[in-house]
Each structure stands twice: as structure tokens, then as C-alpha cells.
């Protein structure tokens, strides 16, 4: 192989251009995929936490009883009313 045949590749900056081009493509993909992946990760984390809370609440002991006294308090505007 003649050394002058490869001179255009290395001496002309084609390798540097190729590396810069590849890095720019990877960078743009990262900037596009990373936020989408973060959103999906956040949704999955919240779903896992909700499932854990749901499972914990299902293990609560149940009680049998009756309501002896109850009241409803409504407030709003310029008055408050309490109904037994």
C-alpha cells in the first residue's frame, strides 16, 4: 500500500471529523433518550411504591364494631355549621 493513499484520510482530518460526527450523534441520542427514560423510571418507581403501600394496607387487622357518635362539620364562606 502506498503511504500517499492514506494521507488524505489522516492528514485531511477525516478521522477527527468522523469522531466528532459520531460523538455528536451519540450526544443527541443521549439528550433525547435520557429524559424519556427518566420519566418512565419515575412512573415505575411511583407504581412500585403504591403497590407496596397497597399491600401494607391490605395486611391491616380488621375490626368489628359500631359507630357510637358521629358528627359532620362544614365550614366555608362566612359561617360554620355542625350537625350531630
Strand proportion: 5-15%
- Work out the radius of gyration: 33 Å
Overall pLDDT metric: 82
Q: What class, by secondary structure content? A: mainly alpha
Biggest sheet descriptor: 2 strands, antiparallel
The side-by-side strand order for the widest beta sheet comes to 1-2
Low-pLDDT residue spans = none
The number of strands is 2
- How much helix, percentage-wise, in residues? 55-70%
What is the approximate shape?
elongated
The helix-strand sequence is: HHEE
How many helices in DSSP terms?
2
Q: In words, what does this structure look like?
A:
With 84 residues, the protein is mainly α. The chain has a domain at 12-61. It has 2 helices and 2 strands; from the N terminus they run ααββ. The protein has helices spanning 3-11, 14-58, and strands spanning 72-76, 79-83. The protein has a two-stranded antiparallel ribbon. The longest helix is centred in the middle third of the chain and has 45 residues, at 14-58. The chain is elongated. It starts with a helix and ends with a strand.
Give a nutshell description of this structure.
This protein is mainly alpha-helical and 84 residues long. The protein has helices spanning 3-11, 14-58; strands spanning 72-76, 79-83. It has a domain at 12-61.
